[in-house]
C-alpha cells in the first residue's frame, strides 16, 4: 500500500510547485484589473445605450460568456500571431511573432473573458441604485461625475462585491488552463512533477490544496470588505436619517 500511495510525497511536492505561484497570481491579478476596467467601461456604455457600440458589446458579452475560456485562450494564442503575420504581409512590416511571450496571450484571453462577466455584475449593481437618490443629487447641482463618485459607486460596490469575489475565485481556478499554451504556472509545474515521478494522485492532491487555500484567502478578504462596506453604508444611512 505504501508504494501505491505516499502521503509524504504530497508535502514533498509543495516547495517545487510553489516556486511558480507568482506566475499564477500574476495572471489572476493582471486579468482581474484589466477585466474590471474594461467591464466598467462596457457597463457604462450599455447603461447609456450608446448607439452601435451597445449592440456590438451585447454581442461581445454574449460570445465571451457563451464560449469556453479554453477556446478563447486558443483563439488568442493562435489568432494573434496570424493577425501579426497578416499585418506584416499587408503593410510590409517585420514584426517578430516569436517575440510575443505566451503570457501575453493568457493576459488577453483572461482579461477579455473577465471583462464580459464583470461588466454584467457592474451594470446590474449600478442599475440597482435608487433613482431617487440620483435625482436628489441632480437637484442640488451635483455633476454626473460627482453623482457617480459619491452616490452610485459606493452603493453599487456594496451590491457587486460578492459577485466580484466569486469571479476572482473562478479566475484563480481558471488559471490552471494557462499551461495549455506553455506558460509555467503551478499547474504546469504539478504536471511536470507528476510525470517525472509517476505520482499523479499525490501531486494533484497538493495542487488542489494550493488552489483551495488561495480561494479561501480571497473569500475571507472579500467577506471582510463586504462587512466593512455594510457598516459604512449603515453609518451613512443613520446620518441621513
Automatic annotation (TrEMBL):
The gene is yjgD. The chain crosses the membrane at residues 20-45, 57-75, 95-113, 156-183, 203-222. GO terms for molecular function: transmembrane transporter activity. It is a multi-pass membrane protein. Pfam families: BPD_transp_1. Residues 21-222 form the ABC transmembrane type-1 domain. Belongs to the binding-protein-dependent transport system permease family. The keyword Iron does not apply. GO terms for biological process: amino acid transport. It comes from Clostridium diolis. SUPFAM superfamilies: MetI-like. Keywords: Amino-acid transport, Cell membrane, Membrane, Transmembrane, Transmembrane helix, Transport. It is found in: Cell membrane. This is Amino acid ABC transporter permease. PROSITE patterns: ABC_TM1 (PS50928). PANTHER family: L-CYSTINE TRANSPORT SYSTEM PERMEASE PROTEIN TCYL, MEMBRANE COMPONENT OF AMINO ACID ABC TRANSPORTER. CDD domains: TM_PBP2. The keyword Transmembrane helix applies. The lineage of its organism: Bacteria, Bacillati, Bacillota, Clostridia, Eubacteriales. InterPro entries: AA_ABC_transptr_permease_3TM, ArtM/GltK/GlnP/TcyL/YhdX-like, MetI-like, MetI-like_sf. One of its GO terms (cellular component) is ATP-binding cassette (ABC) transporter complex.
Amino acid at each position: 500500500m505504501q508504494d501505491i500511495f505516499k502521503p509524504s510525497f504530497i508535502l514533498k511536492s509543495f516547495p517545487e510547485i510553489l516556486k511558480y505561484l507568482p506566475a499564477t497570481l500574476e495572471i489572476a491579478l493582471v486579468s482581474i484589473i484589466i477585466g474590471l476596467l474594461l467591464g466598467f467601461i462596457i457597463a457604462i456604455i450599455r447603461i447609456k445605450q450608446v448607439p452601435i457600440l451597445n449592440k456590438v458589446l451585447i454581442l461581445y458579452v454574449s460570445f465571451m460568456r457563451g464560449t469556453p475560456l479554453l477556446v478563447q485562450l486558443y483563439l488568442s494564442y493562435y489568432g494573434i500571431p496570424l493577425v501579426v503575420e497578416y499585418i506584416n504581409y499587408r503593410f510590409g512590416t517585420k514584426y517578430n511573432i516569436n517575440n510575443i511571450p505566451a503570457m501575453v496571450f493568457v493576459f488577453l484571453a483572461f482579461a477579455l473573458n473577465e471583462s464580459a462577466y464583470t461588466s454584467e455584475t457592474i451594470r446590474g449593481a449600478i442599475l440597482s441604485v435608487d433613482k431617487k437618490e440620483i435625482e436628489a443629487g441632480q437637484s442640488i447641482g451635483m455633476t454626473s461625475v460627482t453623482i457617480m463618485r459619491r452616490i452610485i459607486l459606493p452603493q453599487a460596490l456594496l451590491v457587486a462585491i460578492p459577485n466580484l469575489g466569486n469571479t476572482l475565485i473562478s479566475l484563480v481556478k481558471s488559471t490552471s488552463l494557462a499551461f495549455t499554451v506553455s506558460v509555467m504556472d503551478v499547474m504546469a509545474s504539478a504536471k511536470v512533477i507528476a510525470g517525472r515521478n509517476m505520482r499523479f494522485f499525490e501531486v494533484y492532491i497538493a495542487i488542489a490544496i494550493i488552489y483551495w487555500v488561495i480561494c479561501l484567502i480571497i473569500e475571507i478578504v472579500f467577506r471582510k470588505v463586504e462587512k466593512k462596506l455594510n457598516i459604512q453604508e449603515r453609518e451613512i444611512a443613520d446620518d441621513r436619517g
